[in-house]
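Filed under: proteins

Residues; backbone shape codes:
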Amino acid sequence: MRPHLMDCGGAEYACCKGIPVIVFPTRKDKEDVFSAEDLVIALKSLKVDFILLAGYLKLIPAALIRAYPKAILNIHPSLLPAFGGKGYYGMKVHKAVIASGARYSGPTIHYVDEQYDTGCILAQRVVPVLAKDTAEELAARVLHEEHKLYVEVSAALCEERITWREDGVPLIQSKENPNNYR
């Protein structure tokens, strides 16, 4: 096991299962750093079709976004476009939701573009904000829904049930009734 994978449960799991892992260094002063173009070449060589991020907090390099149009997803712990953008992550999001008096929150799965949290929204799940909620209590309920929603969206992606309206809005086709969308 490579030492820098020890901090990433997903990478550790993949390595143990024989799934190829690419670690894109977060600091330019590391010896094993490579460019966004190198990352695209590596992903293409592995025949990667989609990139699913799990609350990734940094901007994705433009070269990667151009190489994978409509193929990179991320999840955010609020109902975007509210409480999104630079600086809105983790407990900061849930504290801001509660402080605002919003009655609902919940996870958003969105396509990644060159800005923070501004890509097309693919799916959302509503979670009530209760009168006496703490940020930790709200975060736990949102996280519970995040896990379910991402599995549903991933299945729709793999089953090719994501379509695009003429105006550029993505829709998920119902598995049970292909004439219905959500």
The chain has a mean pLDDT of 90. Residues 49-172 form a domain with the Rossmann fold fold (CATH 3.40.50.170).
